[in-house]
Automatic annotation (TrEMBL):
Residues 252-321 form the Flagellar motor switch protein FliN-like C-terminal domain. It is found in: Cell membrane; Bacterial flagellum basal body. This is Flagellar motor switch protein FliM. It comes from Bacillus seohaeanensis. Keywords: Bacterial flagellum, Cell membrane, Cell projection, Chemotaxis, Cilium, Flagellar rotation, Flagellum, Membrane. Its main location: membrane. It is a peripheral membrane protein. The keyword Cell membrane applies. One of the proteins that forms a switch complex that is proposed to be located at the base of the basal body. This complex interacts with chemotaxis proteins (such as CheY) in addition to contacting components of the motor that determine the direction of flagellar rotation. NCBIfam families: fliM_switch. The keyword Ligase does not apply. The lineage of its organism: Bacteria, Bacillati, Bacillota, Bacilli, Bacillales. It comes from the Bacteria. InterPro entries: CheC-like_sf, Flag_FliM, FliN-like_C, SpoA-like_sf. Belongs to the FliM family.
Amino acid sequence: MADVLSQNEIDALLSALSTGEMSADELKKEEEEKKVKVYDFKRALRFSKDQIRSLTRIHENFARILTTYFSAQLRTYVQISVASADQIPYEEFIRSIPKMTILNVFEVPPLDGRIIMEVNPNIAYSMMDRVMGGKGSSHNNVENLTEIESKIMSNLFEKAFENIREAWSNVADIDPLLSELEVNPQFLQMVSPNETVVVISLNTTIGETSGMINICIPHVVLEPVIPNLSVSYWMETKRSEVNPQEVESLKERVKKASVPIVAELGKSDISIEEFLAVGIGDVIQLNTRIDDPLTVRIGEVPKFTAQPGKSNKKVAVQILDSLKGGNDDDE
């Protein structure tokens, strides 16, 4: 039985036959070739686009927290933002970073594996210069990193990375711990070269110095919390955050809150000179009549009308009606 051509194939065939450029067999062969997709088994995609987007959102929050932290620590202009989030083989990540750089290796119990925070040397030395009282100038001298410099950087980046606990709070409750500081990526083999890692790159500006901070997260670290990276999990988490008991407790506390109530007899406009001349026994004429209802204010908002009187030999007002209008109609 002859193959049945699609409408697109028929139209293309008629066009090709009319010009003598192509035969039907050549056309079908070309259509089949277009359906083939190249797949690199060395670059296995183990995370969905949805999960990568969730990781991007998490580290956008982390970038904002780091901006605040470093601004306070360094007392200079700091701007950190997510540039990209990609899944690549570990070997490719090692090749993409400088041969000599600042590599902070963190353990994140209870999760297995370790996370790398790679800081560009220009950024690292600029931070260290600010910590030591300098202007934030950068001089790349990673190969001859002294023990004092290593200690200063370790303390700075260890405290900075602790903020990831807050950014990850919706995914996992982790306890970051700096395990080592390395400068040569070739000496750092955390996982196999073909292991898939997620690399979040952060654009970083410290004063007039700019560079990149890369966070490398191996698949083994994220594997237990992959279900928590889905959109459905985030939506369920947000819904479950509303605790009915907390809502009722909040209502009770609001009911017991104290608010000022003022019964306004009237108003009058006088000049500063007249005000300074007011003395005991003087009479100030108000803009209301004796039989007009009073305005009762809750805070600064007029809420009720009332009439004056006495209750148990004390001055009191009796509520006549409620006032609505403007932004005070939602009682």
